[in-house]
C-alpha cells in the first residue's frame, strides 16, 4: 500500500520476492509513471490489464521496460504503450492468439526492441501485423502452440538480431520472409513442422549468423554448399531431419569454429551479440547425450549436430580443422569409411558421438591426446582392433564401444599380440553348434523322405501292399515254429 502513495517513483523491482496472489488494480495504474517495472520470478496470478501510456515521455528518462516473466499470469496478452522498449511476459499462462496484441497499433509504430512471449499457451496463427514493430531486435515465441507459416510482413524486421520460434507447430518451407533480416545472429526453428530444403540464400544473406538450430523438423535434400559462407557460425544443429547426401567438405572451413575462444571478455563484439539490454541470450543444445540450455556461457560454446538423418559417405577430413569445436554428433546416419586420424587436433573437444553408423577400421591413436574429452559414443559400427590407451578412453562405460569388434579396456575382451580379437572358444562353439544343427536337420529330412517313400508305395500300389502283408504273415509263422526249439535250448 505504501507504493500507492508514491507520486514520483520511477523504478519498481520486486522480482524474486516470493510474492503470491493477484496484483491490485491500482498498481497497474502506477505504470503510467514507472520507467522500470520488474515483477518477474514471483507467484502472481490473474490477468494483466492494459499497461497505461506514460504521462510523460522525456527522452532523458530512458526507455520503459516491463518484466513480468516466470509467474502464473493468465488470460489474453495485455496491450502496451508504444514507448515500451523491452517486454518480457515469458513463462506464464497467457493464452489465445497474438492478433489483438500485435495488430492494435493505430497511431504510429511501436518502439519495442525486445519481445519475449516464450513459454505460454499462445495458439492460432502468427498475424501479419509486423509492420507496426520495425524496431524489434529480439523476438522469442518458443514453447507455445502457434501454427501456420510465418507471415510476409516479417520481412520489415530489418533490425532483428535474434529469432527463436522453437517448440511450436509452425509449418511450411523455410520462411522466405526472413530473407531481409540480414542482421540475424540467431535463428532457432527447432521442433516444428517445417519442410523442404534449406535455401541456398541462407548462407549468403546472414553474414553474422552465430546460431542456426533447425533440429526436429521435416527438412530434406542435400545440405547447400552456401553454408560455408557462415563464417561466424558457432552452433549448427540440423539433427532429426531427413537430410541426404554426403557431409559437405567445406564444413571444416567455418572460421568461428576453427578459432579457440578462451574468454568472452576477449571478444567484445561476440559478447555484445549475445546480450541484448538486460536479456541474456540462450539456446537449447544437445551435448554429451543430453539437452542443455546455454545462456551466460553461450558465446563460449561451439557445437555441430547432424545426427538422425540419412547422410552417407565418409567423415570428411576437413571436419577435424575446427580446433575450437567442443561437441559434434554424427550418430544415427549411414556414414561409412574410417574415423579421421587427425581428430586429435581438436584440442578442446568435449563430446563425440558417432554411434549407429557403418564406420570401420581402427579407432585413431590420436584419440588418446584428447584430454578434454568427457563423452564418447562409438557403439554399433564396424570398428575393430585395440582401443587406444589413454586416461579418458579407459574411463568410459563399455557401452560406448559395444556393437563393434574391439578389444582392450574398458571392454572385458583381451587383445591378441597383434592388437586384434583372438579366436575365442565361444566363437568355435557357435560354429560347432551350427554344424550339429544342420546334421540333425538333414537326418530328420532323410527319415521323413524314407518313411514316406515306403508308406507311399504301399498306399498307392495294391499289389505291393498285398505282397508286403503276405511277407509279414510268412515271417510270423516261421518265427512261431522256431520258438519251441529256442525254449528247449
From TrEMBL:
Its main location: membrane. It holds the Pfam family LRR_8. It is a single-pass type I membrane protein. Keywords: Glycoprotein, Membrane, Signal, Transmembrane, Transmembrane helix. It comes from the Eukaryota. The chain crosses the membrane at residues 438-460. It is found in: Membrane. This is Serine-threonine protein kinase, plant-type. It comes from Solanum tuberosum. The lineage of its organism: Eukaryota, Viridiplantae, Streptophyta, Embryophyta, Tracheophyta.
Amino acid at each position: 500500500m505504501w507504493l500507492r502513495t508514491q507520486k514520483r517513483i520511477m523504478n519498481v523491482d520486486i522480482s524474486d520476492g516470493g510474492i503470491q496472489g493477484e496484483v491490485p488494480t491500482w498498481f497497474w495504474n502506477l505504470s503510467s509513471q514507472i520507467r522500470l517495472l520488474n515483477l518477474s520470478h514471483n507467484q502472481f496470478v490473474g490477468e494483466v490489464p492494459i499497461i497505461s501510456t506514460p504521462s510523460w515521455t522525456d527522452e532523458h528518462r530512458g526507455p520503459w521496460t516491463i518484466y513480468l516473466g516466470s509467474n502464473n499470469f493468465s488470460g489474453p496478452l495485455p496491450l502496451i504503450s508504444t514507448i515500451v522498449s523491452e517486454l518480457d511476459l515469458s513463462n506464464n499462462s497467457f493464452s489465445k492468439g497474438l492478433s489483438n496484441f500485435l495488430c492494435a497499433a493505430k497511431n504510429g509504430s511501436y518502439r519495442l526492441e525486445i519481445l519475449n512471449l516464450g513459454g505460454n499457451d499462445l495458439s492460432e496463427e502468427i498475424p501479419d501485423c509486423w509492420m507496426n514493430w520495425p524496431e524489434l531486435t529480439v523476438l522469442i515465441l518458443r514453447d507455445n502452440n502457434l501454427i501456420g507459416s510465418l507471415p510476409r510482413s516479417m520481412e520489415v524486421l530489418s533490425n532483428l538480431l535474434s529469432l527463436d520460434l522453437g517448440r511450436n507447430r509452425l509449418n511450411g518451407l523455410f520462411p522466405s520472409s526472413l530473407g531481409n533480416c540480414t542482421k540475424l545472429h540467431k535463428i532457432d526453428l527447432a521442433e516444428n513442422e517445417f519442410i523442404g530444403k534449406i535455401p541456398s540464400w541462407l548462407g549468403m544473406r546472414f553474414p553474422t549468423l552465430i546460431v542456426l538450430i533447425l533440429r526436429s523438423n521435416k527438412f530434406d535434400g542435400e545440405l547447400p554448399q552456401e553454408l560455408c559462407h557462415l563464417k561466424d557460425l558457432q552452433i549448427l544443429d540440423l539433427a532429426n531431419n531427413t537430410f541426404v547426401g554426403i557431409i559437405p567438405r567445406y564444413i571444416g572451413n567455418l572460421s568461428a569454429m576453427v578459432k579457440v575462444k578462451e574468454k568472452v571478455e576477449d571478444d567484445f563484439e561476440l559478447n555484445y551479440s549475445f546480450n541484448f539490454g538486460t536479456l541474456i541470450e540462450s539456446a537449447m543444445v544437445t551435448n554429451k547425450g543430453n539437452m542443455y540450455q546455454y545462456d551466460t556461457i553461450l558465446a563460449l560454446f561451439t557445437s555441430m549436430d547432424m545426427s538422425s538423418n540419412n547422410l552417407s559417405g565418409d567423415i570428411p577430413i576437413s571436419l577435424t580443422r575446427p580446433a575450437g569445436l567442443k561437441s559434434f554428433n554424427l550418430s544415427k546416419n549411414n556414414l561409412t569409411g574410417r574415423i579421421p586420424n587427425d581428430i586429435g587436433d581438436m584440442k578442446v573437444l568435449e563430446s563425440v558421438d558417432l554411434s549407429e553408423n557403418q564406420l570401420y577400421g581402427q579407432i585413431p591413436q590420436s584419440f588418446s591426446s584428447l584430454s578434454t574429452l568427457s563423452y564418447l559414443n562409438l557403439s554399433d559400427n564396424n570398428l575393430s582392433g585395440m582401443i587406444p590407451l589413454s586416461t579418458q578412453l579407459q574411463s568410459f562405460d563399455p557401452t560406448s564401444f559395444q556393437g563393434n569388434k574391439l578389444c582392450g579396456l574398458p571392454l572385458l575382451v583381451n587383445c591378441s599380440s597383434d592388437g586384434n580379437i583372438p579366436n575365442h572358444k565361444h566363437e568355435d562353439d557357435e560354429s560347432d553348434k551350427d554344424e550339429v544343427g544342420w546334421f540333425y536337420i538333414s537326418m530328420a529330412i532323410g527319415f521323413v523322405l524314407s518313411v514316406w517313400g515306403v508308406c507311399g508305395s504301399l498306399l498307392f500300389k495294391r499289389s505291393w501292399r498285398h505282397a508286403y502283408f503276405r511277407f509279414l504273415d510268412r515271417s510270423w509263422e516261421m518265427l512261431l515254429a522256431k520258438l519251441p526249439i529256442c525254449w528247449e535250448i
